[in-house]
Each structure stands twice: as structure tokens, then as C-alpha cells.
């Protein structure tokens, strides 16, 4: 990692949103979220190229997933309980509707879908899967819960014409 | 004679018809034929290329859909590295929905009745009703199981009660009646010493009987839920000294030393009456199962912010693993006579546990045969 980084994100850096926004509240429009994400993607791609940009999105998604899991999900539950809690929490925060297609806890191999995804649902067809950030996010969550590294790949996306984002999630042997 | 353009047009028309007929492979072969036979200037190669791509994608979609239609959900997703097969998007979604439905079904089979299906309209309504009724059935079954367990426990308690009346109450009474009979019939021929010994034995029987009656009464009050529970704060050491004074007699007679090793300033919150019963029972038991020359120590461990743990330790005959396991089971006969034949019903310990649990504390035991036994219980600090 770069050595001269001064900032290291922590959950508490998100601040007390309820206190800070007594009138506007803790929610905002998806449009605003996407405006920020896609303008940032635009600028990053122009400066660093698409490949490096993808890496940055995956890496920051990973960090977000890990912190989210540590601070918003009960990691002491068994797998079924954990998935149920995760699903409910992702829905509560309006991130997306998580569904399990396949789960093999023994081999740590999963297929998950996210419908009504915050990042990409409703995007025009472009032949490109957009959810690098989600890939990282899921990997971060799964790593925090299991302690195992995961390879997450988005195989379907709104951006490539599907109506739900589908991820293969595979644990890498330690 | 048709011109080349007309032939190409006819062949392309044939491609379309074949495609409509669902014969994708033949359509692709016809395209091969067009590219092989005709002059590239006479037709638009890009158009033919695109048509080929369209047919390939259509074919991939058809193969994929065919597998799904036949219920083969294990089919891998169509090869589409460039992500340009827009035709299969809906099939993929169907595939995804069916996979999820399968997973949900597996979860339901495993007993997860929280699953909700949001797919296929009427189907999901009926399916969710089915899950609801399964959940209700499970709740009912759990309730029945709980009630059966409660009834079994009640029955065991009733049996215990009758067994105490039948044996434990009867034997000391028999002894007591025996002594009174001798006294009545032979008092004139007895020496003063003999009368004194007999009176002492009668008193011992009477004390034991009284203790047992006291425990029975306490226990029946607790069973009926009419026990008064009013915790107060008090100093531990003097309270234990007070309790010990009442049961010192048998210890002195057996030659057992009783030590109150509780820190002077330890305070607890407890119902005084229940607390006394617990100490009285645990120490009485310790005395019963310790031989002369041994000792019984009452101590307490006080850690700020944690429950106070009180220990009643003896240097007695101890218990086997099996006896420990059965100690608090009301349905198993656990009575065992003391080292000098003292009667014991096991009721005292059950009473102790119930009283301690009413305070939110726990009672546990550590024991080794011929080494001794320690009972630990916790109570809230003052
Ligand atoms: Zn996506």
C-alpha cells in the first residue's frame, strides 16, 4: 500500500447523521448516490484508465463491506441466521434485495443475486457490468464473517441487460 | 435463369424461414453456403456476420431456455464473455428466480419458516400460506412438547412428595414412636441415664422431622407460587454465623469443625428467609456427609461488579460423577444416608436450587469421592 496515506477510514468517521440532519433525516435519493459514484468513475477513468478505476472500486467496496459487516451485522450467527440478518439489513438500508441461489457452506461456494441494486438497477444497456464496488462489498462482508478470502465475480448485471445482478462468490483456500 | 442477387436474396429468405421453423443449425449452414458460394461484392458480408451472431445468440438462448423448461437448473450460464447476448437476459432472470425458489424450499425443509416467496403471483400467495401454516403447526407442537415436559415434571414432583411422606417421614416417626412406647411401658425400670439417652434420641428424631417438615412446607409454597420474595441488603458474614448457630449441634456431636471464612465487609441482596434456608440446607448436608474430624468451610468470593459466589466446602465422602448428574433431578431417587446413618431426602438441594434461581443465581457442585464436595452458588452483591 502507499505509505504516505494520512487517512484510514473507520466506521465512526460516518458521524452522527441523525444529530447532524435533524430536519432532512438520515436518507437521501439514490440519484445523489449514483451522481457521486458515476462522476467519480468518469474522473478516475480519465486519470487512471478503466482497469485501475475498477481496482479502486473493488478495493473501496471491500473496505466498505468489511466495516459494514463489523458494525451493522451480527457475525456471531450461524450461516443461515447471518444471511437472514444480512438480507434484512441490506433491505433496511435500501442497498438491494439479496437472495441466495445456491449455498455450499462446505466448499464456501455461493451464488447470490441482488435485485433493485443501489448501484446499477435501471441503468441503460451498455454491455458492461458496473458493480465492481458491489463485488468488493460482498467479498469484504464474506471475509469478515468467515475469515476466508473470497473471489467475487458479477456474472449478470443491469448494465449487461439482465434485470438482477448475479454474483458468484467463491472462498479461496487458506 | 435467376441473377446472383436474386439467388442470394432467396437463400437469405430461406435462412429466415429456417429460423422461424426453429432450425438454427440449418440456418447457420445456409449462411456458410452463402459465404462460400457467392461473390462478396454481391452481398453485404457485415449483414451476414451480424445475422450469424444473432442466430448464434438465439441458439444459445434456446438451448438455455430448453434446459430450464426441462427443469435442469444445473445448466451453466451461456458463454457470453463479451456480454452482448441481450436475448438471454430474461431467461437468466427466470433461471435465477427458480434457483432461489429451490434454495428457499431447501431452507423450509430445514425448518426455516421465515422464508417468504415473492415470485409467480398466485403461486407465492399459496406458498406463503403453506409456510405460515407450517410455522403455526410448529409453534403448536413446541407448545405441546413444553406442556408435556411441564406435566412430566409436575408428576415427578408429586411422586417425590409421596415418596418423602412414605419413607423419609415414616422412618423417623417409627423410631420416635418406638422410643415413646418403651418410655411408656418401661419407664419405671429404666435408669436415669437410659431415659436421658432415649430422650436425646427422641429429640434428634424430632429435630430431623421438624427440618423435613420445614423443607416440605417451603417447597409446597414454592410449587404453589405463594412464596413471599422480598430481597434486602445485608452483611453476609454475621448472617451466616447466625444460620450456623442453629445447626451447630450435629456438627459438635460428630466432631466436625465449621469455619466461617467470609470477608467481613461482603454484602449481598437476597430474601433473608430463602438465604437462610439455602445455608442451612447446604451446611446440614455437608455435615451429614463428612466424617468426624473433618471440617466444613463457608467462604465467599467478592469481585466488584460481579455476583458474589458463596462456597460451602466439606472434607467428606464426596460423590461419583453419576450421583452429581442425578443430584438435581426430582424424578430420580437421590437420597443417601449420611456417614452416621443420618436421613437425607435430596429435597433440601432441590429447594436450594429453586431458591437460588429465584434470585437469578446459579448453583453448581464440584466433588471428588473420598476427598470432599463444594457447592457454589451466586447471589447479587449489595
Ligand atoms: Zn450490477
Structural features, described:
The complex is a heterodimer of chains A (174) and B (382). With 174 residues, chain A is α+β, with helices and mostly antiparallel strands. Chain A has a single domain, classed as Trafficking protein particle complex subunit 3 (Muramoyl-pentapeptide Carboxypeptidase, domain 2, 2-Layer Sandwich), CATH 3.30.1380. Chain A has 4 helices and 4 strands; from the N terminus they run H-H-H-E-E-H-E-E. Chain A has helices spanning 17-20, 30-72, 79-92, 132-146, and strands spanning 97-104, 109-115, 150-156, 165-171. In chain A, strands 1-2-4-3 form a 4-stranded antiparallel β-sheet, with helices on one face. In chain A, strand 1 (97-104) and strand 2 form a beta hairpin. The longest helix of chain A is centred in the first third of the chain and has 43 residues, at 30-72. The two termini of chain A are 22 Å apart. The mean pLDDT of chain A is 90. In chain B, strands 2-4-5-7-6 form a 5-stranded mixed β-sheet. In chain B, strands 1-3 form a two-stranded antiparallel ribbon. The mean pLDDT of chain B is 87. Chain B is an alpha+beta fold and 382 residues long. In chain B, helix 7 packs across helix 12 (347-358) and helix 10 runs antiparallel to helix 12 (347-358). Among the domains of chain B are: 4-109, no CATH class; 228-382, Heat Shock Protein 90, CATH 3.30.565. In chain B, a hairpin with a 3-residue loop joins strand 6 and strand 7 (372-379). The interface between A and B is medium-sized, with 21 and 18 residues. Residues 117, 120, 129-131, 154, 157-159, 165 of chain A line the site of zinc ion.
Amino acid at each position: 500500500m502507499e505509505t504516505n496515506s494520512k487517512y484510514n477510514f473507520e466506521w465512526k468517521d460516518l458521524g452522527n447523521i441523525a444529530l447532524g440532519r435533524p430536519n432532512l433525516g438520515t436518507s437521501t435519493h439514490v440519484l445523489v448516490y449514483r451522481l457521486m459514484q458515476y462522476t467519480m468513475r468518469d474522473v478516475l477513468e480519465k486519470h487512471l484508465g478503466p482497469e485501475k478505476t475498477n481496482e479502486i472500486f473493488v478495493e473501496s467496496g471491500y473496505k466498505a463491506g468489511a466495516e459494514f459487516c463489523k458494525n451493522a451485522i451480527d457475525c456471531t450467527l450461524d450461516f443461515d441466521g447471518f444471511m437472514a440478518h444480512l438480507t434484512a439489513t441490506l433491505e433496511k438500508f435500501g442497498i438491494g434485495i439479496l437472495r441466495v441461489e445456491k449455498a455450499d457452506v462446505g466448499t464456501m461456494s455461493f451464488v447470490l443475486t441482488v435485485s433493485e441494486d443501489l448501484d446499477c438497477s435501471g441503468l441503460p444497456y451498455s454491455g458492461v457490468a458496473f458493480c465492481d464496488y458491489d463485488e468488493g462489498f460482498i467479498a469484504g462482508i464474506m471475509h469478515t464473517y468467515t475469515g476466508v478470502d473470497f473471489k467475487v465475480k458479477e456474472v449478470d448485471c443491469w448494465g449487461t441487460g439482465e434485470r438482477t445482478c448475479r454474483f458468484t462468490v467463491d472462498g479461496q483456500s487458506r | 435463369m435467376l441473377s446472383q442477387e436474386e439467388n442470394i436474396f432467396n437463400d437469405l429468405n430461406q435462412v429466415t424461414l429456417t429460423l422461424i421453423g426453429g432450425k438454427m443449425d440449418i440456418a447457420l449452414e445456409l449462411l456458410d453456403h452463402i459465404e462460400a458460394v457467392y461473390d462478396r461484392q454481391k452481398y453485404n458480408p457485415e449483414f451476414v456476420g451480424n445475422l450469424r451472431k444473432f442466430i448464434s445468440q438465439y441458439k444459445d438462448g434456446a438451448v438455455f431456455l430448453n434446459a430450464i423448461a426441462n427443469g435442469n437448473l444445473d445448466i451453466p450460464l451461456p458463454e457470453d464473455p463479451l456480454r452482448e447476448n441481450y436475448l438471454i437476459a430474461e431467461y437468466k432472470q427466470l433461471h435465477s428466480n427458480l434457483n432461489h425458489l429451490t434454495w428457499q424450499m431447501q431452507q423450509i425443509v430445514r425448518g426455516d419458516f421465515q422464508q417468504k416467496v415473492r415470485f409467480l403471483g398466485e403461486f407465492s400467495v399459496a406458498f406463503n400460506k403453506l409456510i405460515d401454516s407450517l410455522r403455526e403447526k410448529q409453534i403448536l407442537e413446541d407448545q405441546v412438547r413444553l406442556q408435556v415436559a411441564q406435566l412430566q415434571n409436575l408428576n415427578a414432583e408429586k411422586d417425590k412428595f409421596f415418596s418423602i411422606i412414605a419413607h423419609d417421614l415414616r422412618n423417623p416417626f417409627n423410631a420416635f414412636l418406638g422410643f415413646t412406647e418403651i418410655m411408656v411401658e418401661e419407664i419405671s425400670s429404666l435408669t436415669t441415664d437410659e431415659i436421658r439417652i432415649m430422650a436425646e434420641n427422641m429429640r434428634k428424631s424430632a429435630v430431623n422431622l421438624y427440618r423435613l417438615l420445614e423443607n416440605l412446607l417451603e417447597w409446597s409454597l414454592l410449587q404453589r407460587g405463594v412464596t413471599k420474595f422480598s430481597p434486602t441488603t445485608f452483611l453476609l458474614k454475621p448472617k451466616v454465623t447466625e444460620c450456623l448457630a442453629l445447626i451447630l449441634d450435629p456438627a459438635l456431636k460428630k466432631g466436625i469443625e465449621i469455619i466461617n471464612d467470609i470477608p467481613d465487609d461482603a454484602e449481598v441482596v437476597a430474601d433473608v428467609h430463602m438465604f437462610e434456608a439455602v445455608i442451612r440446607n447446604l451446611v446440614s448436608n455437608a455435615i451429614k456427609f463428612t466424617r468426624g474430624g473433618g471440617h466444613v468451610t463457608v467462604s465467599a468470593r467478592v469481585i466488584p461488579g460481579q455476583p458474589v459466589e458463596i462456597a460451602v466446602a466439606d472434607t467428606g465422602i464426596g460423590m461419583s460423577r453419576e450421583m452429581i448428574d442425578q443430584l438435581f433431578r426430582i424424578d430420580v431417587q437421590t437420597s443417601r444416608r449420611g456417614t452416621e446413618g443420618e436421613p437425607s431426602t435430596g429435597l433440601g438441594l432441590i429447594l436450594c436450587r429453586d431458591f437460588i434461581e429465584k434470585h437469578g443465581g446459579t448453583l453448581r457442585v464440584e466433588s471428588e469421592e473420598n476427598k470432599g464436595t463444594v457447592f457454589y452458588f451466586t447471589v447479587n452483591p449489595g
